[in-house]
Design a protein that fits this description.
The chain is mainly α. It has five helices and no strands. The protein has a domain at 60-115.
Length: 158
């Protein structure tokens, strides 16, 4: 049988369609937003996206940088900076020294792994011996050629 839908059913359908369209639109916005975030993060303009957030940067790259930073706060008169010095000197610096030492050992180990296990002159000596034998053979052939050519020359004269 045929059933007619009431006007309320049409309204429900319209609301569902609106809701679906809104979801699609939000999904597209989120995709664009994500792309924009990836682009801004790669360009280094994080401060433009969030002006109220503090901007972070690397203060120390090497062990000397860490030692200099610790020494900078050693003679400070401010309580917070003295506490920072104590924290750096007692907790961080010993661990950082160990980390840099481990990194250096690992780098040396990696370099040693790339070097040949042993060095041998056997192939080089073998090549030199072969060249010497070839030179001697060439000398013998040339002497033999000279000897034969003299015999033929003397034979021809007779």
């Amino acid at each position: 049988m045929y059933k007619e839908e009431s006007p309320k059913g049409d309204e429900k359908k319209k609301r569902k369609d609106k809701h679906k369209k809104k979801k699609k639109k939000d999904k597209k916005k989120n995709k664009k937003k994500k792309r924009g975030e990836a682009h801004s993060a790669s360009s280094g303009d994080e401060a433009d996206d969030a002006p109220n957030q503090p901007r972070w940067s690397v203060a120390c790259l090497t062990l000397k940088d860490w030692e200099d930073l610790t020494a900078k706060y050693k003679s400070s008169k401010k309580k917070a900076e003295k506490e920072l010095y104590e924290t750096l000197a007692e907790s961080f610096l010993p661990e950082i020294v160990k980390m840099f030492a481990e990194k250096e050992r690992e780098e040396r180990r990696r370099l040693l792994m790339n070097m040949p296990k042993r060095t041998s002159n056997r192939l080089e000596r073998k090549k030199q011996d072969q060249e010497e034998r070839d030179r001697i053979l060439a000398l013998k052939v040339s002497l033999l050629f000279c000897f034969i050519s003299r015999i033929f020359f003397n034979f021809y004269l007779i």
